[in-house]
Write a structure and sequence with these properties.
It is a single chain. By secondary structure, this protein is of the alpha/beta class. Helices cover about 30% and strands about 20% of the residues. The chain is built from ten helices and twelve strands. It has a twelve-stranded mixed sheet. Helix 1 (about 50-60) links the parallel strand 1 and strand 2 (about 65-70). Helix 2 (about 80-85) runs parallel beside helix 3 (about 105-115). It is globular, with a radius of gyration of 19 Å. Bound molecules: S-adenosylmethionine. S-adenosylmethionine (SAM) binds near residues 33, 70, 98, 191 and 196. S-adenosylmethionine binds near residues 27, 70, 99, 162 and 322.
């Protein structure tokens, strides 16, 4: 007789079916809002075999979707193989990836062939000079845009463009970014800046007003994805052309949280805001069995708070580098 395991739940009874897994904390961009980290010590990162093993552990625990992130996940030379093996892990129904897009021209097709269903490309600006300023390096907008074009040509079931809105930096080009994404069959999403580094956050309500001022006629839409985004659609569009909004601070969505994270060093984190940490890499290297890893994950989820506290002024909350925990 087969027996389906009970769903994985956190301390608040929320079902955890979505894992964000950082493949590296290294990145070739240095975005002002995303604290960098460069850990060169040998063995610091989870190995290929450890990641695949954790995929199996989480799949058996009840995780159904894994998003690969970082750092920049495409800097790992084994990223395509990891997608293929994680997609084949028991219980895993979808593998997704978030990237700055610079290697997509060469990687979009192999990633899709390996079974990647969902791809998010980060694009904060369509201006080459602005991108260089935001990313703090000689990032090439041409590479990012041709990468997005390659992804659109390959035809992922879900292709999204993620834009972090920054006061005084990119507020004037949000409508342009929406049209650029729509023209490539991608869904644009606007993310509220979280307090991990510099920059001026723009509340989601203001982003909606800016889009209206920039000529977009958006109306309510019922779509809900795997994540916290809520959506509007272009009036009269069929099929619907949507815009997503992720208002982590001003439109808190912790109540519906369905996710947990594994950082590049194997640190399990039940909440992006800091609760419920345990290092799974050290556990695996100490010879733990899968059952022992599962128990540690359940215990960490068992102390997950009802909501993050990133919007509270003056808390002693430790803001962890986004680089290592993958957003
Ligand atoms: N390197 C990849 C990329 O550029 O998409 C994946 C990692 S990055 C940490 C994942 C997402 O987090 C990106 O869309 C990025 O813009 C977003 N992000 C990073 N720091 C953020 C912050 N302080 N507030 C909001 N979003 C942030």
């Amino acid at each position: 007789m087969s027996c389906t395991p009970a769903p994985l739940k956190d301390a608040q009874g929320r079902i955890i079916a979505y894992l964000r897994l950082a493949l590296t904390d290294r990145c070739n961009f240095r975005c002002s809002y995303c604290s960098p980290a460069e850990h060169e010590a040998p063995g610091y990162l989870l190995s290929h075999a450890e990641i695949v093993r954790l995929g199996g552990v989480f799949g058996r625990l009840g995780v159904r979707r894994i998003r690969l992130t970082g750092g920049e996940p495409t800097l790992r030379s084994d990223v395509v193989g990891l997608v293929r093996e994680l997609r084949a892990a028991p219980g895993i129904e979808e593998v997704a990836l978030t990237t700055n897009g610079h290697r997509l021209s060469e990687l979009a097709a192999p990633l899709r062939d390996a079974g990647l269903e969902s791809l998010n490309v980060s694009l904060d600006t369509l201006d080459a000079e602005r991108l260089r300023r935001i990313s703090g390096r000689a990032a090439s907008l041409d590479d990012v845009l041709s990468g997005l074009d390659a992804a659109a040509a390959v035809g992922f079931p879900h292709l999204k463009v993620n834009t972090v809105v920054m006061g005084g930096v990119n507020e004037d080009e949000l409508g342009r970014i929406v049209r650029h994404a729509w023209d490539r069959g991608a869904s644009p999403r606007f993310i509220e800046l979280m307090p991990f580094g510099g920059g001026v956050p723009v509340p989601t309500a203001r982003v909606r007003r800016l889009l209206a001022e920039q000529g977009l006629r958006l109306v309510a839409d019922a779509k809900r994805g795997w994540g916290p985004a809520h959506y509007l659609r272009e009036e009269g569009s069929e099929p619907p052309r949507r815009v997503g909004f992720i208002g982590a601070l001003t439109e808190n969505f912790c109540e519906g949280c369905n996710r947990a994270r594994v950082a590049a060093d194997g640190g399990f984190q039940a909440c992006l805001g800091g609760d419920g940490r345990a290092n799974l890499r050290d556990l695996l290297r100490a010879g733990a069995s899968d059952a022992e890893v599962e128990a540690v994950v359940r215990n960490a989820l068992g102390v997950k708070a009802a909501r993050h506290r990133m919007d509270e002024q003056g808390t002693s909350l430790v803001l962890l580098p986004m680089m290592g925990i993958g957003g």
